[in-house]
Model the fold of this input.
Amino acid sequence: MDMASAGSGPGSLRRTEAVFERVMRAGVAGAVAAVSRGPGDLMAIAGGRAAPDRPMTTSTVVPWSCAGKPLLAVACLRLAAAGVLDLDSVVTQWRPEFGLLHPRLTLRHLLTHTAAVDEKGSAPGTVDRELHEWPPEPGRGPGRHHVYSAWWNWGVLAAVIETVSGTSADAVITQTVLHRARMRDCSIISAGPGGGNDDPAGPGTVRDDNIMLLTPDSRQPGDWLEPSRLRLEHHDPSTRMCGPVTELVRFYRWVQSSWESTAGPLPASLARMATTMQLPLGCENEDWRTGPGLGFCVGMKALGLGKHCSRLSFGYAGALGGGNLVVGLAEPQHDIVIAAAVGCLGRRAAFALKAVVTALYEDVLTVI
Done:
């Protein structure tokens, strides 16, 4: 078991270590987790294998998939804070072709997953080229229903950001998020033909051939493959993020710093709005356990991440290759930040991730 720590204060990851040993016996190939109890504090643990020829370590690069979506959201919110974008302006102001989705569609609808776009279960190659094949759900206008969008919402966000910035969304994330948060060990996997990362968008030197995945589509159970062999949706660069889970902890610490100081990425009022549940119209009196913030999921317990997640917790989870799960979340109630990844086939991955997150909470809460 590989363990690392930084900062000061008592504590250990005894419960988490025991959970790691248990889930490895149950078939998890590898797992890695990190937790921070405050600025400057970090504990991390890893076990199992990252690839057939490599052990999982606390510095192993893992693909974040949808857990990287908040990075594009924060890039968008920074442009809004600078007056470049207006969250309540219609998207057609910058990209008229998206009027086909809905003429009243705004950036706020996209960030809160209330755009009412029916994705029909799979992703488009590019949002502009296949626009006519992806109509919105009939009878549902934007802003009235929370329907999670895996592809379209962030694809449209990226297209708008590229229009107003005059550069790629990959470059905007790199300049306004990765560099600012000092996330030096992260990169954005190329989604070009054949994959690869010959021209890394991130500030580090991460290459996608350093990453291996388990996939149920392999020829043999338990086969591994590189992300370059997967179909990575290039219209949303945030889902092509990769890096150690400790960098996800760094990101959430950076976001939380906006609440109390000017060192964070956003004005305090906007940061609190982004990490607070934004209910659709007509849902104010409903008992929502989880829902959208502005680019974040709020109330992580209802996402199957353990009994200790409060209604105030916010973050994002992602899956890639069928059994590779990753999550990053912040728990304002206890000033905890957690990130974890597991590699496994089938439903065991979800159970393993929940057990790991629960154990991290319990390890930390015993010393707070």
The helical segments are 14-25, 69-81, 107-111, 152-165, 169-178, 245-260, 268-274, 348-365. The longest helix spans residues 348-365.
